[in-house]
Design a protein that fits this description.
Blueprint (H helix, E strand, L loop, with lengths): L2 E6 L2 E5 L7 E5 L2 E10 L9 E14 L2 E14 L2 E15 L5 E13 L7 E3 L13 E3 L1 E17 L3 E15 L7 E13 L8 E9 L7 E8 L6 H5 L1
Antiparallel strand pairs: 1-4, 2-3, 4-5, 5-6, 6-7, 7-8, 8-11, 9-10, 11-12, 12-13, 13-14, 14-15
Length: 239
């Protein structure tokens, strides 16, 4: 099926958000992607189907920083009605109160109807609450929120790397419709290390996190290693 993307760019140049010592371009413009796929019976589908998809993103400056909203909606419809569908919404805010300081807040929620096996929401360790093991939260419903405040210790040590200290808190999870919500909390401190000359601006993160127990895992301390933030743009996940 075909799709169409329309973008009105509005780039903001910032520093010290994803990495260190580098200018970072953030698009605060408006992007809309609309498309439709077809599933004809002639190709082996049980019924003729049509699957529209709309994805949108818009950003703006806010006092002391910037933010953006994202949304995605799509589904497969046939003569029997809605066969499967997905809706995701997310908001991200970034504030830089003073040089070398940055605060980031991200919230998101999602819904899937009749997901294909393996396409469910999947949170834990790398994406979502970082102190929980991989696949700790799976399901067709999800909510997640994270906040992080980072202070840059050195922006460009020896012309090679930047170093920062961060505090963070995560809350969220995923579950299946008709079952109890499975959610988890964690909080902690971490180091941020980023190459100041690499083309990739995302910093490495080394976190000491306190996991607050739930029915998936007991409480405890854990060291996690990752790259970038514990969330990704809705559009990146969808494409």
């Amino acid at each position: 099926g075909p799709y169409l993307v329309w973008n009105r760019a509005n780039f903001l140049v910032t520093r010290g958000v994803s990495g260190f010592a580098r200018e970072e371009d953030v698009d605060l413009g408006v992007t809309v992607r609309a498309g439709v796929n077809f599933a004809p019976r002639a190709f082996g589908y049980e019924r003729d189907g049509i699957a529209p998809l709309v994805l949108a993103r818009a950003g703006a400056k806010i006092p002391g920083g910037f933010g953006y909203l994202e949304g995605l909606a799509g589904g497969m419809y046939s003569s029997a009605g809605l066969d499967s569908g997905v809706v995701e919404l997310a908001a991200t805010g970034v504030v830089k109160p003073t040089r070398g300081h940055v605060g980031i807040v991200h919230v998101e929620a999602g819904w899937i109807e009749n997901p294909l096996p393996g396409s469910e929401f999947d949170l834990g360790l790398g994406t979502g609450p970082r102190a929980f093991r991989s696949h700790a939260f799976t399901g067709d419903r999800t909510v997640f929120a994270t906040a992080e405040y980072r202070v840059t210790v050195v922006d460009d040590f020896l012309g090679l790397v930047g170093l920062g200290i961060a505090g963070f808190v995560d809350h969220g999870g995923a579950w299946f419709a008709g079952t109890p919500r499975r959610l988890g909390w964690d909080a902690g401190l971490g180091l941020r290390l980023g190459a100041s000359r690499a083309s990739d601006t995302e910093a490495l993160r080394f976190d000491l996190a306190r996991r607050f127990g739930n029915d998936a895992q007991d409480a405890g301390w854990v060291v996690t290693v990752g790259k970038g933030f514990v969330f990704s743009p809705v559009g990146k996940r969808a494409l």
